[in-house]
Amino acid sequence: MKLFEFEAKDILRKYGVEVPPGVVVGKTDDVEARIKEAGLEPPLVVKSQVLVAGRGKAGGIKLVNSVEEAVETAKRLFETPIKGLKPSYILIEKAIPHDVELYAAIVIDRSERKPVVLASRYGGMDIEEIAREKPESIVRQYIDPFVGLKGYQARLIGKKIGLTGKALASFAMFLQALYRAFVEYDAELAESNPLALVGDKVIPLDARIIVDDNALFKHPELRTARVEESGEYTEWEVKARKLGLAFVELDGDIGVIGNGAGLTMTTMDLVYEFGGRPANFLDIGGGASAELVKTAVGFLMEMPKVKKIFMNIFGGITRCDEVAKGIVKAIEELGGLKKPLVVRLSGTNEEEGRRILREHGLEAYTDPIEAVKRVISL
Hints:
Elements: H1 5-14, E1 22-26, H2 31-37, E2 44-49, E3 61-64, H3 67-78, E4 89-94, E5 100-109, E6 114-120, H4 127-133, E7 139-142, H5 151-160, H6 165-184, E8 187-198, E9 201-204, E10 208-211, H7 227-230, H8 235-243, E11 246-249, E12 254-258, H9 261-273, E13 280-283, H10 290-302, E14 308-315, H11 320-334, E15 341-347, H12 350-359, H13 368-377
Parallel strand pairs: 12-14, 14-15
Antiparallel strand pairs: 1-4, 2-3, 2-4, 5-6, 5-8, 6-7, 8-9, 8-10, 11-13
């Protein structure tokens, strides 16, 4: 889960990092009053809070020289989409004069199974640009997760990007704080770009943290609904997440439901193999209840791009009779089948599942190839 810039800075502040003073405003807030309450004096930076990179290049970050200009800029940014997303929040900060911009990040290197620190004396641009234009400037330091980032390592990284004296000490302290936040918030990425060098100390002018979705149960304070604001998901993927469905939208017209990721992907391959195009991946998982099946079937019945549905179930811990009950519940709630539905059932309680479906006018297939040919032909 991506965090907004102001959330990432709030986290860094907890670890003793000095960040620019600022205030977050919403669309209905009295922006001028909020700025004055926060004691902010111009010049100020007005920043659109959207969960995508490249805000500066897209016009989402503006330097202003008066409170009145900040108010007008904030109003304008609320209506300015950044990569298709309009902000719900604007961050207004004290502008920090500086001459040097650095880059610092910690990310998981999955090939090495370790965190790695990336740092460069050239901040203010994408790491991809730095790697392309000045590859020799990027310092990489792997961290033993059992030991953590030691002070001498942080100082060595700082020296390699050209820092000395108090500036080096400030950078090392920042890097260790960033690493603590990275570990304790189960992050996939913790980054500051640009990291400004102001006199003899470093100050993160921007901050970015991405938390592993699988660790959100440990951070209930972060579990706010933001899938719509991330720009990563389609409208129907957002709806599916709210329903608790493991769903990915594709570009075809055949809705696919399976139990287990492997079977669902194999089912999609079968659809492609015989000339069809899946509209989605939808995995109801092992041991799915009738209620979950009902939700999944009803969801695809409502999805406009899905013209027909293929449900491929191999019952192990999933009971075929529970699946059949879920299908029946969906049909009853919808007032009948809105779209053609082809079901393949095999495994635990298969005969009972077939009987339930037969009583409601549905004949289940045993052979998945026969079933997929049938759904494509419809």
